[in-house]
Amino acid sequence: MKFFLDTANIDQIKEARDLGVLDGVTTNPSLMAKEGITGKDNIRKHYEEICKIVDGDVSAEVIATEYEEMVEEGEYLAEIADNIVVKIPMIKDGVKAIRHLSDNGIKINCTLVFSAGQAILCAKAGASYVSPFIGRIDDINWNGMQLIHDIAEIYAVQGFETEILAASIRSSLHIVESARNGADVVTCPLDAILGMLKHPLTDIGLEKFLADHKNAQK
Ligand code: E4P
């Protein structure tokens, strides 16, 4: 399973890269706004910077919501760097744009997916990634992880090649459960990845090893 970082924050991207577990990055308009990145030129420069740091796919989301504009913006984003993946929302014009762009060799991440039906449409349209939003489903008291399980089952039965990118990850447990349920990729905040390091018995065990070693030197 690949680890993507769900952020536009350069320091966090470098930290995950230096940890040696980073396979890619996803951004969205909210994450870009959070970093204060505004204006066409700054947005382009920011994507260029991320793409140089990351040896893997970097999702850049279109703002347009109509077919022609989505295609135009998708083509613009795709030529920023070889590792850009264009992120398109799961709406009717989006499905048309996914078909057109993927037919023209541009990798697509279909975002804002909340049902198995939407995931089937993503795969049919030729998206490279489908992004089901686990945390936001849990927020409304439905079962986000069940959706990952259902999509994995359907894609396996049908032989769809679209990769399942578990998104809206809120915790380390979400990462573990996404792995168990068949996600190909998780995109997560840095804290959720670092949280996987933690176990009290690791800390206690290390403390004892170091104390025993120190005592033996006396
Ligand atoms: C997916 O690519 C989205 O950027 C992201 O995972 C959304 O997560 P959120 O629900 O925490 O905003």
TrEMBL record:
- Active site per database record: K87 (schiff-base intermediate with substrate)
Q: Does the keyword Cytoplasm apply?
A: yes
Where mainly located?
Answer: cytoplasm
Catalytic activity, as annotated: D-sedoheptulose 7-phosphate + D-glyceraldehyde 3-phosphate = D-erythrose 4-phosphate + beta-D-fructose 6-phosphate
Per the record, the GO terms for biological process are:
carbohydrate metabolic process; ketone catabolic process; pentose-phosphate shunt
Pathway assignment reads: Carbohydrate degradation; pentose phosphate pathway; D-glyceraldehyde 3-phosphate and beta-D-fructose 6-phosphate from D-ribose 5-phosphate and D-xylulose 5-phosphate (non-oxidative stage): step 2/3
Keyword Ribosomal protein listed? The answer is no
Q: Which domain of life is it from?
A: Bacteria
Q: What class of enzyme is it?
A: transferase
| Compartments (UniProt record) | Cytoplasm
Q: Give the EC number.
A: 2.2.1.2
Pfam families named in the record: TAL_FSA (PF00923)
Which keywords annotate this record?
Cytoplasm, Pentose shunt, Schiff base, Transferase
Q: Which GO terms describe its cellular component?
A: cytoplasm
What GO molecular functions are on record for this protein? aldehyde-lyase activity; transaldolase activity
HAMAP family the UniProt entry points to: Transaldolase_3b
What this protein is reported to do is described as: Transaldolase is important for the balance of metabolites in the pentose-phosphate pathway.
The record's family statement is:
Belongs to the transaldolase family. Type 3B subfamily.
List the protein's name: Probable transaldolase
